[in-house]
Amino acid sequence: MMLTVYRWATRFMGPAIYWHLIRRRARGKEDAARFKERLGHPGRARPEGPLVWIHAASVGESLSVLPLISALLEAKPDLSVMVTTGTVTSARLLGDRLPDRAFHHYVPVDRPRWVARFIEHWRPDLALWAESEFWPNLVDQAERRGVPMVLINGRISDRSFERWQRFPRSIAQLLGGFSLCLGQSELDAERLRVLGAKEAHCDGNLKYASPPLPVDQAALDDLRRSVADRPLWLAASTHPGEEAAVGRCHQALANQYPEVLTVVVPRHPERGADAANDLTANGLRVARRSLGEKPGPETQIYMADTMGELGLFFRLCPLVFIGKSLIGRGGQNPLEPARLGCAIVVGPHMGNFVTVTEDLIATGGCLSVDDEVMLAETIGRLLGDSNRVAEIGEAARREAQGKASVLPDIMHRLTPVLEALGENGHAAS
Q: What is the pTM of this model?
């Protein structure tokens, strides 16, 4: 019933959906130059030969599939890979990092007409869906056209599991289109089985296989000269409300460390100006990287509101707080700083990375705090103990590297599907 209502709504509410996209485009949340891709229009010709389509909702999911893309292309020299996402930020990052024979395309908004246009042009031979973003019309039309589908790195959060259990027939129908579901954890695999997956396994979390985030070494050297020997810490991938909390933490820390520098990297760089204005209004001296400013001796908060530079700041700051974890929205990926040997601190809300966070805490590579007061106290202790910071950072690095071999196991699961590409698929028709 729920899927029927959804499909009816997406079919007949076309004008409202279209104007919503127009408003998003006006706010910079849609790519004006490639806007038609969101309506299912192709942005380029379909490449010859078999085509694997990978859908990865946004930045985190798209970065996690990069090692898998390279492995797929190496396994089949005639293969092309199309990665779809729905955000401007992920499109820009993938544009810089996708290998040859792989390309990005915006996923169409999930209206039947737009989805049909998309599927009919691309005729994918295999669809890999990353994590847990199930678009009913995309799933349905891919299944109707005989496209094999596999869920990779599947994640079913507590909240999603509870919600889907209220609609068992709907989720069973969606999962029924997937020949194989690979969960991030054993818990995810079990939940997928309960919800109706035909076959569900766990070979590990694909995020462990991701390479370290890249860095511009000259930019890193320049920043190191700017900060000199100042005590510093990083608040990474912050969300609305967290910058203000971090600002208050800085003010508390400054009583003990007058020269402390707090680096803030907002998850969405376009929020940098507003976040900086709020901090300035609270009496803090802020420099913004997007304006070409460097952290001077008087700078208290360095707002790193640029895109694709987290690897730079993880290398600059050995002590990292993970954003989206103080405000109850599920946290961001702690493996990115762990891979680079950072000491990690998280808030109480890491629901999107429960198993990863629990493993990091258990192995000594991460500390958890309950609120901003405890965050300031924890950061304060660590700023005065560089040996402890190094110890936590090394434990985090060992944990991240110790599970990096997940990719061959996942590729082994996909081998039978890959070997069949072109035999009965659209590329051979």
A: 0.88
